[in-house]
TrEMBL record:
PANTHER family: IMPORTIN-11, IMPORTIN-7, 8, 11. The gene is Ipo11. The keyword Repeat applies. SUPFAM superfamilies: ARM repeat (SSF48371). The lineage of its organism: Eukaryota, Metazoa, Chordata, Craniata, Vertebrata. GO terms for cellular component: cytosol; nuclear envelope. GO terms for biological process: protein import into nucleus. This is Importin-11. It comes from Pampusana beccarii.
Length: 723
């Protein structure tokens, strides 16, 4: 009974102490300058109990964590840091900084650093036992999200990082002295020496960025660390695990590329060590090292691609914890992303396993997100061959993007990206791929941050098979667009209009028909002088497509607008041309500028008085277009249209670029049918002017040309030399 009473009393006392420390932390957080008089005493209190013999036998873990958080908050507090220009700092800041500087002397900092590394960083018997019995759970517990605030180990590491960053010039020599003391072989019977080495290596990894100029890591890797990885003694497992983690920390900081083959060879050996894989948490550190190395460079990795990918896949199958599977999948995704098409010979095993893993992860949405990311990179790596994944891939996309299904909350963003890359790499439109678009209407109604990807998906369908897609979904799509345009940002409005523009470009006949309900608002926007240049530019791009590529539909639209506005048809046409000419500077894309010139020129030859009245503006736009697209051949002195494409060239990618997708190829083929890329603006102007001259006769034509500025006429004549 007395023992029970003593425990109850101790519990109450500990809770009271923690409450007091929490009040102190909250006070510091909310009122840093009011806390200034307490800085000295708070630091003395916390450091004496945590980093001297004063606390031995009486402190408890939660109290140590609170004290470390208190020290960390004082060290990092921006209110206590003077500006580079001292004169810009407030007196309160300078006072607090003075107190901090007076406390953190060299002996104090050295003792804190040594105690953190040689006492708090040491793995405990409980941790070693947990590592042996359940390594994956140990990994998850050790790397938990906000655990630094509440758990001792991550809290000590965060404090070490912050203090080392703040006082690195003082502490670097202290840590380097510890490293030098570890040179030479370690006695396998001396568990304490092994744990000290693990702790020091941990500190060097955490301080990697601060030690950049102080450590020759390449030499250390070659002369010591590589040998440490090759020690096979069972008691040395903590060091092998720590060394590969240490390399992973440094590889993005300071590691020569020509050392990578030695590193990859060591990693391969570690992954092949089944005892290591089963009995310790090395898999995470090994895969981290692969990931960090690939982020920096995939140089030399290709020769190890097959064994690495195979071993990583085996590891994915063997691990059981959801978090570990996610981590290994993340590294596999990185490998696939970096090597791209070169992954194709090795992915069959993964392709066969992913459906099973997807089914097993039904209750683990974050693991499913990792699977989606892996599928994204797989599809990009497989290109057109990704169609073989459709039996698994399309139902996954269907579920992930269905807002009526609860998992969409977690899966939607990655699901949309997977949907998009699937379309971009699809060689043809299948009925199942078309059917998935039924999910889009609800997605557009959400008006969420995912709208941009939704528009990209819609465009991808248009490029893939405009006729089948528009005939099936254009009505619903048009209705959704009309609702969206009532309440959407300018950027969103442009995205909607670009879909319409692409539809008109890809399918000049069907496009205007299916999006007819949207075109009157585009027409009104032009003649009313839309105030946003980017919107006006898109309006003119749409109208340019209709006028140039479907003149009969333009005539119908013009008649409709005349009726709606109660104005004469010619008056409406004149207003449109006048605003088009006036706002031409809103168009910045060379393709649209050439399109505008071609579209307005298509109104010629004409006897219409309104068109003749706007002739000067049409010629001005045409000459501007010539300046945009014509380049001079230095050898012949003649001009040529730089936008002309005469044959299909397979899009090529440099070593730093991703290979062209099927959609890239479709866009190239589309360009070969686009007047912007097939019609010479120079030739088109000449033919239209000649036809106008023949229609009016020489005298009438000259009178028309006299309405054009003489300088513009001179530029036009220079461009048309040789015709």
């Amino acid at each position: 009974r007395s023992i029970r009473a003593e425990n109850v009393c101790r519990d109450r006392l500990e809770k009271t102490i923690i409450l007091f420390t929490k009040v102190l932390l909250d006070f510091l957080d909310q009122h840093p300058f009011s806390f200034t008089p307490l800085i000295q005493r708070s630091l003395e209190f916390a450091v004496s109990y945590v980093f001297t013999e004063a606390g031995e036998g009486i402190v408890f873990e939660r109290f140590i964590v609170q004290c470390m958080n208190l020290i960390k908050m004082i060290v990092k507090n921006y209110a206590y840091k003077p500006s580079k220009n001292i004169e810009d700092s407030s007196p309160e800041t300078l006072e607090a900084h003075k107190i901090k500087t007076a406390f953190f002397t060299y002996p104090t900092l050295m003792e804190i650093c040594r105690r953190l590394v040689t006492h708090y960083f040491l793995l405990t018997k409980e941790e070693l036992m947990m590592w042996e019995e359940d390594p994956e759970s140990f990994t998850v517990e050790e790397t938990g999200g906000d655990s630094w605030k509440y758990s001792l180990r991550p809290c000590t590491e965060v404090l070490f990082i912050d203090i080392f960053h703040e006082y690195n010039q003082t502490l670097s020599p202290v840590l380097l002295e510890m490293v030098h003391s570890l040179q030479g072989p370690t006695n396998m019977e001396d568990t304490s020496a092994i744990l000290i080495k693990d702790a020091v290596f941990n500190a060097v990894g955490l301080a990697a960025y601060e030690l950049f100029d102080s450590v020759d890591f390449d030499q250390w890797f070659k002369n010591q660390l590589l040998a440490e990885l090759q020690v096979s003694h069972n008691r040395y497992k903590p060091i092998r695990r720590r060394v590969i983690w240490l390399i992973g920390q440094w590889i993005s900081v300071k590691f020569k590329s020509d050392l990578r083959p030695m590193l990859y060879e060591a990693i391969r050996n570690l992954l092949q060590d089944q005892d290591l894989v089963r009995m310790q948490k090395s898999p995470i550190d090994v895969t981290n090292c692969i990931f960090d190395g690939l982020i920096c460079s995939c140089l030399f990795f290709f020769q190890y691609l097959e064994p690495m990918f195979t071993l990583l896949f085996q590891l994915l199958q063997e691990v059981t914890q959801c978090d570990t599977k996610m981590h290994v999948l993340h590294v596999l995704s990185c490998v696939i992303e970096r090597v791209n098409m070169q992954i194709r010979p090795y992915v069959d095993c993964l392709i066969q396993y992913l459906p099973l893993l997807w089914k097993q992860s039904e209750e683990h949405n974050m693991l499913r997100c990792a699977i989606l990311t892996t599928l994204i990179h797989l599809v990009q790596g497989l290109g057109a061959d990704s169609k073989n994944l459709y039996p698994f891939l399309l139902p996954v996309i269907q579920l992930s993007t269905d807002v009526s299904q609860p998992p969409h909350v977690y899966l939607l963003e990655d699901g949309l990206e997977l949907w998009l890359v699937t379309l971009e790499n699809s060689p043809c439109l299948t009925s199942d791929l078309l059917r998935i678009f039924q999910n889009m209407s609800a997605l557009l109604d959400l008006s969420s941050e995912n709208l941009k990807n939704c528009f990209k998906i819609i465009n991808a369908y248009i490029f893939l098979s405009s006729s089948a897609f528009l005939q099936t979904y254009a009505t619903d799509l048009c209705r959704s667009f009309c609702e969206l345009l009532k309440d959407i940002t300018t950027e969103g409005q442009v995205q909607v209009l670009k879909v319409v523009e692409n539809a008109l470009k890809v399918n000049p006949v069907l496009g205007p028909q299916v999006f007819q309900p949207l075109l009157p608002s585009v027409f009104r926007g032009i003649i009313d002088g839309e105030r946003y240049p980017v919107v006006m530019s898109t309006y003119l791009g749409i109208m340019g497509r209709v006028l140039l590529q479907n003149a009969s539909f333009f005539s119908v639209l013009l008649s409709q607008m005349a009726c709606e506005l109660g104005q004469e048809l010619d008056q409406i046409l004149g207003n449109m041309i006048e605003m088009w000419v006036d706002r031409m500077d809103n168009i910045t894309q060379p393709e649209r500028r050439k399109l505008s010139a071609l579209a307005l020129l298509s109104l010629l030859p004409s006897l219409n008085s309104v068109i003749q009245d706007k002739f000067c503006g049409i010629i001005n736009i045409s000459v501007e277009g010539l300046h945009d697209v014509m380049t001079e051949d230095p050898e012949t002195g003649t001009y040529k249209d730089c936008m002309l494409m005469s044959h299909f060239e397979e899009p090529k990618a440099t070593e730093d670029e991703e290979p062209p997708t099927e959609q890239d190829k479709r866009k190239k083929l589309l360009a070969l049918k686009d007047p912007v890329h097939t019609v010479s603006l120079q030739q088109f102007i000449y033919e239209k002017l000649k036809a106008q001259q023949e229609l009016l006769g020489e005298q009438g034509f000259q009178a028309l040309m006299e309405t054009v500025d003489t300088e513009v006429v001179a530029q036009l004549q220079e461009f048309l030399q040789g015709f």
